[in-house]
Amino acid sequence: MKILYHHRIASKDGQYVHVEELTKALKAQGHEIIMVGPASVEKDDFGSEGGIISALKRHIPGFIYELMELTYSIVAYVKLKRAVIKHKPDMMYERYNLYMPAGIWIKKKYKLPFILEINAPLFDERSKYNGIALPKLARWTERYTWNNADHVLPVTNVLADRVKREGVAAENVTVIPNGIDLDKFSNSMSAEVAKEKLGLSSKLVLGFTGFIRDWHGLERVVDLIANDKYSNSHFLIVGDGPAKATIINCAKQHGVEDRVTITGIVTREKVADYVSAFDIALQPDVVEYASPLKMFEYLALGRAIVAPDKPNIREILTNEENALLFDMNKVDDFYRAIERLCDDELLRASISEKAFKTILEKEFTWLQNAEKVISIAQSISKSG
After folding, report:
1. pLDDT tens, residue by residue, 336-374
2. Distance of CA 377 to CAs 32, 152, 295, 381, Å?
3. Which tens digits make up the pLDDT trace of 131-163?
4. Which of 266, 281, 317 is nearest to 191 (CA)?
5. What pLDDT does 57 receive?
6. Pseudo-torsion of CA 325, 328, 333, 338, nearest 10°?
7. How far apart are CA 200 and CA 314, in angstroms?
8. From CA 205, how far away is CA 195, in angstroms rounded?
9. Dihedral of CA 224/227/229/233: which sign?
10. 76 vs 120: CA distance, rounded Å
11. Region 285-304 average pLDDT
12. Is pLDDT of 47 > 60?
């Protein structure tokens, strides 16, 4: 199948990982991908934030930036039109973004089967965190795009419910969460070797991967390892972010700077080398509709996971089986879950074993995600 893949990602981060992994899986199954999106992202280093686009967003009035976003749809439409004429694709797959109706315009003009991947309710998200200058226009573009797609793929059931509330028919909604490339993680080193390479042999390693923000509350983990009871523990953060200074200051206050490591941004190829050193993998918080990429990496490497007891997390994890889930409304519950795993080696081993099995049992791989996408595309083609 020849697939026209459209996105508007300008930063090389977790969004880009999803695009890269799914398209790689589709290619591995023999499908051809025609990519249409910002060319600059391909040249950026992992962790980049979008260069000139991010700069514009910070320095111009919101309503002007949002009008520029919508105007970009004209540029995107021209690019997509050229791609359709040149390559004659069998279907179109788009990663949803706000103010981007161009894909729907192309779908309508050329009668292309159209699948829309939705990773977040961006109108809600941007309204909450950044503000929307043109709310009526933004809301219209979201509803228009969601409701005119042939099929939508939200990454969680929580998000699927949100999509349906906007009028999308249930039969046109299929939840496909994020996944993992098992080949990439199957040859990972043992915990002992990974720890030795990092100078952490014999340490009990608590770990976190990703962009560290203040709302993660990771200084709570520093408080815990500062307890004399856990003097043999080490906190390994694989990533970077605005909360770095807070964590370092907290470690200094407790006198445990030598037991906290923040690696900075690590290339995707190296992440598994660090996560393999974790004894306990942490997901201190998550937005209510997300499908966290790090969770699948933790599972694939068989780590003992501590995560919040939220509906979207329960779609992936089961308390006391492949993870310990804590109550976000109880301040000490996060501590208690970590302490249980620190104190109980047998429990850590049991949860770790079941974590890896979860990937296979629930088909959390990019290859299986790609198969589902193709099956849906074929169904749309037949019904059309």
Report:
1. 999 999 999 999 999 999 999 999 999 999 999 999 999
2. 14, 11, 28, 6
3. 999 999 999 999 999 999 999 999 999 999 999
4. 281
5. 66
6. 50
7. 32
8. 8
9. positive
10. 21
11. 95
12. no
Q: For residue 48, what pLDDT is reported?
A: 47
CB 133 within 8 A of CB 61: yes
Please tell me the predicted confidence (pLDDT) of residue 46.
Answer: 46
Kindly list the structural domains of the chain, giving each domain's residue range(s) and its CATH number in brackets, ordered by start. Answer: 2-179+365-383 (3.40.50.2000), 182-361 (3.40.50.2000)
